[in-house]
Automatic annotation (TrEMBL):
Carboxyltransferase domain mapped to chain residues: 27-304
GO molecular function, one term: ATP binding
SUPFAM superfamilies named among the record's database cross-references: Cyclophilin-like
Keyword Amino-acid biosynthesis: no
Gene3D superfamilies in the record: Cyclophilin-like
The keyword Nucleotide-binding appears for this protein: yes
Recorded coiled-coil stretches: none
Top-level division of the source organism's lineage: Bacteria
UniProt xrefs under InterPro entries: CT_A_B, Cyclophilin-like_dom_sf, PxpC
Pfam families: CT_A_B
Keywords for this protein: ATP-binding, Hydrolase, Nucleotide-binding
This protein's name: Allophanate hydrolase
Length: 309
């Protein structure tokens, strides 16, 4: 049962509640949702001792301002969005207390795209199809259950804050440098042999640029045109990170709010952590692709998840 709330004064361009995602319903045409940057979302919850899957707030680009109705423990992770607590600077990647009446404000991000605000115990909302993940396009989940993004004067409910939360400090090695060169690991896909040799060389040896056509559904990459010898394909299931190549040869990386099936040939699939890194890349960012084996990708992901067991 909800014990307190945060009142939204300024929602920013796109702020939504996200838990780990909506699974087991793709056969119904319902997509996954969940945090675009799994890495920052997971560490925001970890700072408060929340279990895996706890609902946090995803803040795209910044611009959020909220006021506490009751005392609560919060944590902020992701890029620097010039956060302040009652006007005093607040660094990301840390937990803090927001007392009743205090105001948390976020400016616009200096680097990266999305920050995550977690509350001790997770935000409270009614699950839809087993998840609170907000998918605006599908009209599902979120703080009102209908896929609505946050608006001014909305309230975010949270649970009992009386349980002590031992202080946690995030290891420096886990904090990404959003200004560093971006290399995205990709597991080669079933159709990779159908691409020409020159296309494969260019795919992994030439830089790509993040296009302005980017959202939670997918991100287009601009660069050399890739050519596939397949004339037609039967539509098949689309997983997170799938790199589809339409007829214009410019790859589209599909993210959390993607469609459930697609018929374009796939170069491969970005690993979950590569998807997280790509989700923090603003338009114009230069990225490179690096092939990785499925075994290596699985090992790296298991190592990441082990930190939240």
């Amino acid at each position: 049962m909800a014990q307190g709330y945060l009142t939204i004064s300024r929602p920013g361009p796109l702020s939504t509640l996200q838990d780990a995602g909506r699974y087991g319903v793709r056969r119904l045409g319902v997509t996954q949702g969940g945090p675009a940057d799994l890495h920052a979302w997971a560490w925001a919850n970890w700072l408060l001792g929340n279990p895996w899957g706890a609902t946090a707030l995803e803040i795209t680009l910044g611009g959020l301002e909220l006021k506490a109705g009751q005392d609560c423990r919060l944590a902020l992770a992701g890029p620097d969005m010039q956060a302040t607590l009652d006007g005093q600077p607040l660094a990301p990647w840390r937990a803090f207390t927001l007392k009743a009446g205090q105001v948390l404000s976020l400016g616009m991000c200096r680097q990266g795209m999305r920050a995550y605000l977690a509350v001790a115990g997770g935000f409270v909302a009614e699950p839809v199809l087993g998840s609170r993940a907000c998918v605006v396009r599908d009209g599902l989940g979120g703080h009102q259950g209908d896929g609505s993004k946050l608006a001014a004067n909305d309230r975010l409910a949270f649970g009992d804050q009386n349980t002590p939360v031992p202080p946690r400090t995030l290891p420096l090695a886990t904090q990404p440098d959003y200004a560093a060169p971006v290399v995205l690991e990709l597991i080669p896909g079933a159709q990779i042999a159908a691409f020409t040799g020159q296309s494969l060389f260019q795919a992994f040896n030439r830089p790509w640029q993040v296009d302005s056509r980017a959202d939670r559904m997918g991100i287009r990459l601009k660069g050399p045109a890739l050519h596939c010898r397949l004339d037609a394909m039967v539509s098949e299931g689309i997983n997170l990170g799938a790199v589809q190549v339409p007829p214009d040869g410019q790859p589209i990386v599909l993210l959390n709010d993607r469609q459930t099936i697609g018929g374009y040939p796939r170069l491969g699939t970005l690993t979950p952590l590569a998807c997280s890194r790509l989700a923090q890349c603003p338009p114009g960012t230069e990225v490179k692709l690096r092939a990785v084996s499925q075994e290596r990708a699985l090992r790296d992901y298991c190592r990441f998840r082990a930190g939240f067991a």
